[in-house]
Structure prediction request, 488 residues.
Amino acid sequence: MSATINKISFAFLLSVCNYVAYAQYVYIDKFYDSGLTVNQSEGIWNNSLHELNDGYLFISFTMNNSTGIAGTWLIKTDFNGDTLWTKNYVDIVYSETPQNMIYTTDGNYVIASSFRIVSSSNPYDPSLTKISPAGDILWKKTYGSDTLYENINSVIQTNDGAYAIIASRGLPSQADAYLIKTDSEGNEQWEKQYGGNNYEAGKSLVQTPDNGFLLLGWTRSYGNGQRDFYLVKTDSLGNEQWYKTYGGGDEIGKSILRLSDGNYLLTGSGSQPISGSQGMLIKITPSGDVIWSENYIYNNNSGNNFHASVELINHDIITVGMTNAQSNAGYLVKTNSVGGIIWQRQYDKSNSVDLFYTLLPTSDNGFLLGGQAWNATTNNQDAWLLKVDSLGCPYPNCVTGIDEEEKKVLADVYPNPASEILNIELQENKHYNLTLTDLQGKVVFVSLLDYARSDKFAIDVSGFANGVYFLSLQNSEQRTTVKIVIQH
Prediction:
């Protein structure tokens, strides 16, 4: 008898703990505006999100749309996304556009930026700025020539505690991928260029086990004559050992990631004459041979672009970018280790341009997404931070369905409990029959939801009695049900 009671008590305690853990999960959906001028835009770019023991730290660019002067904006938040403090590295003397921020082995951070003197006619140069966790500048270094266009795209810390920078270098009509190696204090040790007679761009890099580098970008000099993925392998001194191109249409390589199995993942986008713009993932061996290559579109839409990917502990891959399903929206895709879709979602913040450039898996098994979106309050593009759970849901109780090929998120249903309005956001380009049923099986509400008409619907539940209801979404292929609580 006592053993039975103990089993029941343990099961009850476990269910309570699971409920509390779920209830305490923090979702974030926030804008960040520097407030420097009225006509100012912000955005979180590339690998610049960091989780700390008391919140998050990230950088945003801030651009004066009237003067074209850009600056770096450092933001520290708590785990709710509420701002704790900020630092603006903005000066009317120079314009600086940050690209990414990395955590260094000595507990500080290094920001990679494109830098130029406002009063000079010189184009942008690559720049590194090392800061403390409090945002204090420890040192700042610039590189390159005074006459060539040199746009930095990423920095990594190398195995010797120094830094490697990937950029593009040249003129508007012709450029090369550009690699700079520094020492631990940011002093340049050597530089190398890669490319042909047309145009190459360097976007991302990793250090290889032999202390060489793999550089990813795009090329017009090689490949099919349009833009193709461009991969360059170098030795430890930057000398080119080989290069390869990937693609058959118009493709842009955005980021490269070394996977836990020793292979590499290339992330980017491509455009084909019939299918249009697609997100692209290519897995390659260390010698550049393709293991698999997959293209991704959301709801048969052609406007899809990938910017960055992360490998999870179980070897699944999570990728962010943008889709143009109904308007320009943030796009998140989870795939398995061979590129098969597990689920995909869009996040339509406004009717203007919304997109993500970067992501960070969080310690509570969620994902922190960074980018920019239109803010109707400021009437500008502002930095946008979205924290979603392990299913990519931006709030509790999203509805999922299972088919033979993949697990798909059909809709978000919120808030739950609901008091007056129950919102439904469709994630699939289909129409559904919606039924709301009470605990006795009585149908209290029915409706047809057509994605072609809108992806957002609102149900007035203010006249329904308090209690538990079941919301069902069904079409000829799928059916799913979620429990809803109405509480006035």
Summary: The chain is about 5% helix and 55% strand. The chain has two domains: 28-400, 410-486.
